[in-house]
C-alpha cells in the first residue's frame, strides 16, 4: 500500500511567520526563518509539506495572527434597535472609510441548482433602499450568474432577458444569494443573506443613464462568461502552445519572449471586434438603450450579520434575523 501523503502546502501561514519575526528574539527569528526556507524548498521539490521536522520548528513558537485593536467593544447599545439596513447605512458612512478604499466593493455568491455548485464574484453596491441591497450586471448569460439565478434555458449563443418583477415567471433557478462586505481599515465585515429579485426595467434605466458611454457599449458587447478562447496548456517562453478560438478551430504560435512583441492570439480580438460592432450599431445614437439582459438585482435580506474584530479572535458578532415584519437581534459566538 502506498504511503499516505498529506496535501502539498503551497502557502503556510506567511503572515503569522512575519508577525512572529518582528516580535521574537533573534534566535527564535533565525529558527523560524530556517523553517520557512525549508517549507519553501520542500514545496519547490514537489514533496508533501511541511515535513515533520519543519512542523517541529514552527510549532516550537506560537503563531500570532493579526490582532484587531481599531475599535472599542461592539455592544448591543451601538446597534440599531429595529432595522439592519439603517445599521448598515451607519457603518457604510463611517468617516474612516475613504472613497479611495471603495467601501461599496462586495462579494456576491450564488449557487446553481440542482448541483448546488457555488460561485462568487466581486461586484459593486450601487443602491441601498428600504427593501435591500442593489447591484447591476449582465444577467442574461447562460454561462454565468444569470443561469444560476434564473435557470435560463435556450441556445448558448442567445442572450436572454431579465424577467420582470412579479411576472409570474417560474424557473429552475436559485434565487438565494449572499453579499459580503469586508472593510479591513475599520476591522469590520457585513454578511447579507436573502432572496434576489430583479428591478423593474424602469428602475434599471435610472442607473443605466448614469453610466459612461464606453461602459454602455461594453455591456452590449459582452457575452458574459462565454468562452472566447481556450488551450490545454501554456508552455515556457519560446515554446509552442496549442490553442484555438471558441468556434473549435486551433492555432499554434510561439509565446513571445518580450512583452513588446506581438502576443499569442487569445480571444481578446473577438471581444474587441464585438465592441467595434456595437460602436457602429449605435453610431449617431445619443442615448444607448438598456440591454434586455442587463439591469439591477436587489438582495432582499433574510439575515444580516455585523462583525467587528476583537483581540484574540474573540470578535463581536450581531445578527438580525427576519421574523415576519420584524427583526430579531442575536449575539453570535465568534
Task: Write out key terms for the chains shown.
334 residues; alpha+beta; Pnp Oxidase, Chain A; nine-stranded antiparallel β-sheet; three-stranded antiparallel β-sheet; 12 strands; 25% helix
Task: Summarize the SSE layout with pairings.
Blueprint: H1 14-23, H2 26-45, H3 52-59, H4 84-92, E1 105-111, E2 118-124, E3 127-128, E4 133-138, H5 145-150, E5 176-183, E6 188-198, H6 201-208, H7 213-221, E7 229-231, E8 240-245, E9 251-254, H8 268-281, E10 294-308, E11 316-323, E12 326-332
Antiparallel strand pairs: 1-2, 1-5, 3-4, 4-10, 5-6, 6-10, 7-8, 8-9, 10-11, 11-12
GO biological process, one term: pyridoxine biosynthetic process
Domain Pyridoxine 5'-phosphate oxidase dimerisation C-terminal: 294-334
Protein name: pyridoxal 5'-phosphate synthase
Mean pLDDT: 79
User: Do you know the CATH architecture of the largest domain?
Assistant: Roll
Helix content: 25-40%
For the record, what is the CATH homologous superfamily label of the largest domain?
Answer: Electron Transport, Fmn-binding Protein, Chain A
Query: CATH class of the largest domain, anyone?
Result: Mainly Beta
Protein name: pyridoxal 5'-phosphate synthase
Keywords: Flavoprotein, FMN, Oxidoreductase
EC number: 1.4.3.5
Pfam families: PNP_phzG_C (PF10590)
Amino acid at each position: 500500500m502506498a504511503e499516505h501523503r498529506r496535501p502539498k502546502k503551497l502557502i503556510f501561514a506567511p503572515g503569522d511567520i512575519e508577525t512572529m519575526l518582528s516580535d521574537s528574539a533573534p534566535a527564535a527569528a533565525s529558527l523560524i526563518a530556517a523553517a520557512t526556507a525549508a517549507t519553501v524548498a520542500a514545496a519547490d521539490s514537489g514533496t508533501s509539506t511541511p515535513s515533520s521536522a519543519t512542523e517541529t520548528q514552527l510549532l516550537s513558537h506560537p503563531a500570532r495572527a493579526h490582532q484587531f485593536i481599531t475599535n472599542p467593544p461592539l455592544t448591543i447599545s451601538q446597534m440599531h434597535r429595529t432595522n439592519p439596513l439603517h445599521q448598515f447605512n451607519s457603518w457604510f458612512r463611517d468617516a474612516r472609510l475613504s472613497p479611495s478604499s471603495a467601501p461599496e466593493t462586495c462579494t456576491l455568491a450564488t449557487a446553481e441548482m440542482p448541483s448546488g455548485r457555488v460561485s462568487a464574484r466581486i461586484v459593486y453596491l450601487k443602491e441601498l433602499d428600504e427593501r435591500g441591497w442593489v447591484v447591476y450586471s449582465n444577467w442574461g448569460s447562460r454561462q454565468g450568474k444569470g443561469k444560476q439565478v434564473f435557470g435560463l434555458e435556450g441556445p448558448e449563443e442567445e442572450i436572454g432577458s431579465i424577467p420582470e418583477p412579479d411576472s409570474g415567471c417560474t424557473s429552475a433557478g436559485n434565487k438565494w444569494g449572499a453579499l459580503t462586505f469586508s472593510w479591513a481599515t475599520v476591522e469590520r465585515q457585513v454578511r447579507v443573506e436573502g432572496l434576489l429579485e430583479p428591478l423593474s426595467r424602469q428602475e434599471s434605466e435610472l442607473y443605466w443613464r448614469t453610466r459612461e458611454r464606453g461602459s454602455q457599449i461594453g455591456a452590449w458587447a459582452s457575452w458574459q462568461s462565454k468562452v472566447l478562447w481556450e488551450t490545454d496548456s501554456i508552455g515556457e517562453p519560446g515554446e509552442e502552445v496549442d490553442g484555438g478560438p471558441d468556434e473549435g478551430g486551433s492555432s499554434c504560435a510561439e509565446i513571445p519572449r518580450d512583452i513588446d512583441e506581438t502576443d499569442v492570439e487569445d480571444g481578446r480580438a473577438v471581444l474587441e471586434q464585438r465592441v467595434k460592432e456595437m460602436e457602429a450599431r449605435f453610431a449617431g445614437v445619443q442615448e444607448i438603450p438598456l440591454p434586455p439582459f442587463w439591469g439591477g438585482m436587489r438582495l432582499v435580506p433574510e439575515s444580516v450579520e455585523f462583525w467587528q474584530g476583537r483581540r484574540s479572535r474573540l470578535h463581536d458578532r450581531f445578527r438580525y434575523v427576519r421574523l415576519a415584519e420584524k427583526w430579531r437581534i442575536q449575539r453570535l459566538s465568534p
